[in-house]
Amino acid sequence: MQGNPKVLENLNKVLTAQLTAINQYFLVARIFKNWGISTLNSVNYKKSIKNMKLADDLIERVLFLEGLPNMSALNQLIIGEHTAEIMACNLQFQVDAMPDLREAIAHCEQVQDFVTRELLEGILSHEEDHLDWLETQHYQIDKIGIENYITANSVSGD
Length: 158
Description:
The chain is built from 5 helices and no strands. By secondary structure, the chain is mainly α.
């Protein structure tokens, strides 16, 4: 099935964001693991794996629409040097990815590609959930302080 060229372009933009997110969250997970912050390691590792699955869904859709998935494009990673800065970078990373996703959904609606729209809406829902989680973490850091936040997230039991 020949896909709309703009839909394919938008899918590749979202794919680029997902491929970058895999690296962003995997690296952050391993930084937190190295620092002994097990809960943040676990959350970021699971996010990286989820982004890999979402990227797989996007690749399959691009191929179905007879397009070529762009696997070589990556955005710049945004990594901080300490826990609060890393969390702020992850928040900014999430916020930066949203406009392309929303634009892609709107275009799919316009050209009546409802299957692709549904795929992208599922990705948006996942990304909004993670954005909400990140905002909650920032609230906690502000309220209890970074030292207490790190202590609370360094417990074992992943």
